[in-house]
Design goal:
This protein is of the alpha+beta class. It contains two helices and four strands, in the order βαβαββ.
């Protein structure tokens, strides 16, 4: 699982925050490999989010990309719920 964030608050919240971590993701977020994940973050998600925030979509906003390989030690339970719909960007 890859988590991309401009400021880092989503990354920190995902690793150090709750006792139970739950991600709800749409099928549009599923890619074949890490390379495709980086490409999707850089060429699509970061640009759409920049537009939403009124920033230049050609800027570099993929400052922090966190790759979650297993449940962080402070998280007691972790879940990924995949919804068979396009959710978010």
């Amino acid at each position: 699982m890859m988590i991309a964030d401009f400021y880092g608050n989503s990354v920190v919240g995902s690793v150090l925050g709750p006792k139970i971590l739950m991600f709800v993701v749409g099928v549009n977020k599923i890619v074949d490999d890490l390379s495709s994940g980086f490409k999707r973050i850089r060429n699509y998600a970061a640009k759409v989010n920049a537009i939403r925030l009124g920033l230049d979509p050609e800027g570099e906003y993929d400052n922090i990309v966190f790759i979650l390989r297993r449940k962080p030690p402070l998280i007691q339970e972790g879940y990924v719920i995949i919804v068979n719909e396009y959710l978010g960007y």
